Description:
The structure holds 3 protein chains of 3 kinds.
Chain A: H1 18-28, H2 57-69, E1 79-80, H3 93-98, H4 102-105, H5 117-134, E2 138-139, H6 146-161, E3 165-169, H7 174-184, E4 190-194, E5 205-212, H8 222-231, E6 235-240, E7 258-262, E8 278-282, E9 295-299, E10 305-309, H9 316-319, H10 332-369, E11 375-377, E12 385-389, H11 394-403, E13 406-407, E14 410-411, E15 419-423, H12 430-443
Parallel strand pairs in A: 1-13, 3-4, 3-5, 5-6, 6-7
Antiparallel strand pairs in A: 2-8, 7-8, 9-10, 11-12, 12-15, 14-15
Helix pairs in contact in A: 5-10, 6-7, 10-12
Chain B: H1 15-18, H2 55-66, H3 89-95, H4 98-101, H5 113-130, E1 134-136, H6 142-159, E2 167-171, H7 177-184, E3 188-192, H8 202-208, E4 213-219, H9 231-240, E5 244-249, E6 268-271, E7 291-293, E8 305-309, E9 312-316, H10 332-368, E10 373-374, E11 384-387, H11 389-393, H12 398-407, E12 414-415, E13 424-427, H13 435-454, H14 456-460, H15 473-478
Parallel strand pairs in B: 2-3, 2-4, 4-5, 5-6
Antiparallel strand pairs in B: 1-7, 6-7, 8-9, 10-11, 11-13, 12-13
Chain C: E1 7-8, E2 13-18, E3 21-26, H1 28-34, E4 37-41, E5 48-49, E6 54-60, E7 64-68, E8 73-78, H2 80-84, H3 87-91, E9 100-104, H4 116-122
Antiparallel strand pairs in C: 1-2, 2-3, 3-9, 4-6, 5-8, 6-7, 8-9
Amino acid sequence: xxxxxxxxxxxxxxxxxxxxxxxxxxxxxxxxxxxxxxxxxxxxxxxxxxxxxxxxxxxxxxxxxxxxxxxxxxxxxxxxxxxxxxxxxxxxxxxxxxxxxxxxxxxxxxxxxxxxxxxxxxxxxxxxxxxxxxxxxxxxxxxxxxxxxxxxxxxxxxxxxxxxxxxxxxxxxxxxxxxxxxxxxxxxxxxxxxxxxxxxxxxxxxxxxxxxxxxxxxxxxxxxxxxxxxxxxxxxxxxxxxxxxxxxxxxxxxxxxxxxxxxxxxxxxxxxxxxxxxxxxxxxxxxxxxxxxxxxxxxxxxxxxxxxxxxxxxxxxxxxxxxxxxxxxxxxxxxxxxxxxxxxxxxxxxxxxxxxxxxxxxxxxxxxxxxxxxxxxxxxxxxxxxxxxxxxxxxxxxxxxxxxxxxxxxxxxxxxxxxxxxxxxxxxxxxxxxxxxxxxxxxxxxx
Amino acid sequence: xxxxxxxxxxxxxxxxxxxxxxxxxxxxxxxxxxxxxxxxxxxxxxxxxxxxxxxxxxxxxxxxxxxxxxxxxxxxxxxxxxxxxxxxxxxxxxxxxxxxxxxxxxxxxxxxxxxxxxxxxxxxxxxxxxxxxxxxxxxxxxxxxxxxxxxxxxxxxxxxxxxxxxxxxxxxxxxxxxxxxxxxxxxxxxxxxxxxxxxxxxxxxxxxxxxxxxxxxxxxxxxxxxxxxxxxxxxxxxxxxxxxxxxxxxxxxxxxxxxxxxxxxxxxxxxxxxxxxxxxxxxxxxxxxxxxxxxxxxxxxxxxxxxxxxxxxxxxxxxxxxxxxxxxxxxxxxxxxxxxxxxxxxxxxxxxxxxxxxxxxxxxxxxxxxxxxxxxxxxxxxxxxxxxxxxxxxxxxxxxxxxxxxxxxxxxxxxxxxxxxxxxxxxxxxxxxxxxxxxxxxxxxxxxxxxxxxxxxxxxxxxxxxxxxxxxxxxxxxxxxxxxxxxx
Amino acid sequence: xxxxxxxxxxxxxxxxxxxxxxxxxxxxxxxxxxxxxxxxxxxxxxxxxxxxxxxxxxxxxxxxxxxxxxxxxxxxxxxxxxxxxxxxxxxxxxxxxxxxxxxxxxxxxxxxxxxxxxxxxxxx
Lengths: 447, 488, 124
């Protein structure tokens, strides 16, 4: 029989044997697989796939070992002072351990709540943690990442206010505003820049989008800017760093309407940029315009507590082209990491962590500021990132640092003259910081 | 303190209800730097009200919760259009290698040559598999890949000063993200009918395709699990009208080495790495939705794209890129898992994936067709759409059948989708499941059909033995309780 | 099921006239087709609505439908009880589950609506 013309020897991921396939084809009533494929134009059927032959698990490990070895990371002796949206933090063993639970990892979206109470209760905990951190009334179960959460928040503000002009504060990360641009491009939305020290804004803005700490690491006057927005009928959208919330006042205290954040600092590996999770919270009054999945508490037919997806009519699978967003994920697994992380650090841990980051970053800034030719450019209060004005071009300095196995701060000379954005977290020891400072001193103007 | 006990004695109290002042699960190191001045106290908050629990309690709480889930690791999970295949453990392990997990997205290219090489190789493999060689791995989910694809279509027409094309034609069987993404891209959605065989009504499409058509969005195979037999005619109609053809690659698991989308006249497609390429669904994400396009459209791809140059691998921005649709470079560690999957299977293995998936779905269809109606009476691809219309007439809805399956430890099929099928139950077994598992499922489905007459209450009240029975979703929506608070 | 003193539209809304004020709600057929109503989005008092135009939305757990006003005119009152406790739309669609009141600006509009018997016939 011809049925197995294209089937290969058995693979660990594919259980069916030749005889079972033959038996199943027999039950279907055909004598070959091709009989099932007759709708596919014959001239295009079974194309040649120019791919290598499959590897054993052991061979695969070797391949990945060599890929990983080509990257510079702490495990290969490098120290790094990069931040700008992705942050190095210690990830507790509890997070890594729970992340091994296949019952979480290999489940799907909880469309059958009876068979997904674990995922659902974790999502409810996640929403709680986001609310507790931000001191906001309600949160969703997660967005793709920080920038997409921010973009969706600004679009939500446009829906709530029925206005089409979105203001973004000038001190905001371009990754946030660029994502907003890509999201809003064809929705009749205009994006305008609002100066960080503005005392007046146009009276037709849907919102002011604020990042605090801002791109340069400094705390913005969220209270003043929120009042300015509200005085002009606009909403206030604030993108925060969740680690900073262990120390600095939460946006909820300032009457902010929508809060977003990059969830990565809360127990998620940097992993070259993803996957992360976006945090998204807002006032309860605006909940029907909130994008994304939302999990609610309810009871079963026997009166027992249970959790289920709720307010689903906002979403694409029901409202289709009139949905609040096309998003159909909550990035649940990363939300799980955030939840376990926050539960592990707890009340004291989040406070201690923020303090540690603050202390180390301020120590580093003070030491760098003492160096000839370098100065810390900081006008207000910063958390764990700051701008260093360098004596020569930052890329040159970074090149010299790299030779000393130091990955320097981000070159932001396009936004701040000779500027390098430096981030210091609890993962840098004093010895690491001193090594960095010494290296900067040695490089100096010679770079 | 109220203790709510659930079935099986599971304590469902939330973390905040377990919190005891002074308890902790973790200790931060002491500061090793000289004490720095704190900012003005007006900027500082007192406490973050997070749980105070022990480390064991963290582990036990989440471990117990995990056991309330169905998952691929523990259950047959034939959820149609979701491709719930085995997620190889080695992929998780490899993606967590320190050299991959602990690299910063803004490191200089020279320090991440391995990472960029991996992205480039995956781009090439996905281009080869789909026959569409321009690839960006930036999209963070299928819906983002779809949106990126529509942005590319719009950019293409704009670049040709053909900006009046503002219509997306979408079949009535389409998934809800298609129209939602089209609306985000500022396109008006026009629906094309399906014929009685579940195919696109070609004559209807011919009437609709015109100089306003920006793009035709088609799921291949369709949401009915069927291959569109008129595909070449369809792509020609759209191209003749000046439009582009976008293929939703949600169902790509049927096509590996079976047919290349690019060969069929598709201009743009996306693929869900968390479906076809086995990356974990994670209870609802993270996903990854790379977008693949023809050579001609590659210059519009979202950034970044991994490129090999004389000086090594770099992340580049295509010449006329539609821009950044998210923060960094996409779901890197998901891409790493997908790459590991492709490498493990190779050319022959991937082909075998699709062939086995197709055989398994047709086997289930053949074994159940005397008891359940079919959405279309023909061979399916990797999934079969059953209809519980016959059971509905006997007093039991598709929903009841889905819930009853849970009692047997089998996850429910996708219900009530596609919407054009009455009482739809969409079954996708995937190539991962053995014939014994398929036979067990078939036997259970046949028994449930018997129960429709013999014990309908078993179905109406199902599930019986799960952590909860059916939930009051109406009250959940009317009076939303969306977080812990001290009062509830 | 379909009181004789009401007028009906093909979009399954009803009208009860009292003076020149038209009280408007959805029919038993509409609320049964939707299932458990969980949310009603109603317009602001003082706005105008055209006959047969959309004035709001009504949602069940897994469906959303537009509400179309069988009568055009100025909205004089909206039922906050329906907004706060949407289950009244299921429990008492012709009474406490009413949705809006409209000041009728042209009595000829009533001629375009159906009586109970005609409406009921359209459901069969």
